[in-house]
Each structure stands twice: as structure tokens, then as C-alpha cells.
Amino acid sequence: MQRSILSFALAAFAVAFVAPVQALTPVKRVDPVYPPEAARAGTQGFVEVEYTVNAGKVANVSVLNAKPARTFESAAVRAVKQWQFAAGSTGRGKVRLDFSL
Questions:
Q1: pLDDT at site 22
Q2: What is the spatial distance between Cα 93 and Cα 52, in angstroms, rounded to a whole number?
Q3: Pick from 95, 97, 47: which is nearest to 71 by CA?
Q4: Interval 24-47: pLDDT, tens
């Protein structure tokens, strides 16, 4: 009984001190380069990526969804890795990059 009360109190304490989520807005945003093969074929699509920002720099980028697959992912990841955020920014973000002619 005492253990469950302590666990609940610790959980409530942890929730009370979670840092507020701040919106991450890039101060420098690089647009992806349209892959030449996709442009020649008239292919259009999108890539949804998730990224981590540490001290204003993009640390990790992962693809969540892409249509068509294996067409625009590399260009999207390369572009987002070059984004920059305010110097103290830290957090996670998601973005959808559309590729249309």
C-alpha cells in the first residue's frame, strides 16, 4: 500500500515538472532539391519527416511516410538536416514536404 502511494506521488511530481512544449520554427529553412529523375518522369508526391533539435541544430531526421516510396526521401532528409533554429531551441518536430511540378 505504501509503495503504491509513493509511486503515485513520484509520477504526479514528474508530470508536474515536464517542460512545456514550444513550437519549433526554423530561422533557416532549406528547400529540398527535386530529384531530376522524378522531374523527368513528372512524378509528384510528399515526404513526412520527424526531426530532433538540439541547441538550435537538427540532430536526427527520420522518414515517417512517403508517397511514392524511395523517390523523394533522400532529398527531404538532406534539406531538413540543413535547417537551423534559434540558438536555444530544443525539441522534436514533424513536417510534410510536398514535391509538385
A1: 53
A2: 6
A3: 47
A4: 899 999 999 999 999 999 999 999
User: For 45-95, how does the pLDDT look when each residue is reduced to its tens digit (9 = 90+)?
Assistant: 999 999 999 999 999 999 999 999 999 999 999 999 999 999 989 999 999
Cα distance between residue 64 and residue 42, in whole Å: 23
Q: How many CB atoms lie within 10 A of CB 48?
A: 15
User: Residue 83 in 3-state DSSP?
Assistant: coil
| DSSP three-state, residue 40 | helix
Kindly write down the DSSP assignment for every residue of the chain, as one continuous string. Answer: -HHHHHHHHHHHHHHHTPPPP-----SB-PPPPPPHHHHHHT--EEEEEEEEEETTEEEEEEEEEEESTTTSHHHHHHHHHT-B--TT--EEEEEEEEE--
